[in-house]
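Late entry, written up from scratch paper. The run itself happened at the end of the previous shift, but nothing got recorded in the book at the time, so transcribing now.
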Amino acid sequence: MTAQRIDGKQLAAQLRADIKSEITTHLKKGVRAPGLAVILIGHDLASQLYVKNKRLACEEVGIHSFVFNLSADITEKELLDLIHDLNQRADIDGILVQLPLPSHITTQAVIETIDPQKDVDGFHPYNLGRLAQFQPTLRPCTPYGIMMLLGTLDLTLKGKRAVVVGASNIVGKPMALELLMAKCTVTLCHSATLNLQEEIEKADILVAALGHPHVIRSEWIKPGAVVIDVGMNRIDGVLKGDIAYETAAQRAAWITPVPGGVGPMTVAMLLKNTLSAWRRG
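Output as recorded:
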């Protein structure tokens, strides 16, 4: 068995084209462009690259990006005051604060200060609560993108056994909720999970979101499973996932590559969330 590659780049490109078409149609009618505020604190190179990619994606589809490059020694109050100001601006539909934040700033306080209607990352407790009730509004981008990818497969999700490895608020927990909403039987594994191998061996759908390579072994994968690799690990200058792609592809039916799988979809869903917030505005 050789797995079919799930091409996130191709689907993301189609989504961006659709978003651009909709925005262009509205701009011709004199409607203002959607606005996305992106806040970057400090000089972390990875964060700078992520922000650059998001800004370029915004430019491509016609979203006006407002980038705020802030000093690493900004106080928490100063940051929260800026967010309060952005919450009130009519030309800004979405607010994104690039994570991680400096240690002196409380991440949860920042997330909860963002207006839930402008929370295009989907991290605010209100939006996560809506997802938990299966009434989603703005959904966390990476899990949302994964569900879009799964929707392209010749596969019925209802009743499938899904295993998510990693329980972060950004990916793991909302991913489990997304799969539960699709009527999968979901197991959420984490660092204290006993017999991880046994859990993975049962998975029809496996989502690896640990951020650590080689913890999940390819031989644990159930033959014919769908494997979604969220991991982004740089090893000797090369980007790798949480699972060894070449060997896992010999057991899975479908698999996402790293890079080119989940990553492009995360940015595409950020644009889609911004579009949704703009429509409501």
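The two ends are 49 Å apart (CA to CA).
(Scratch paper discarded after transcription.)
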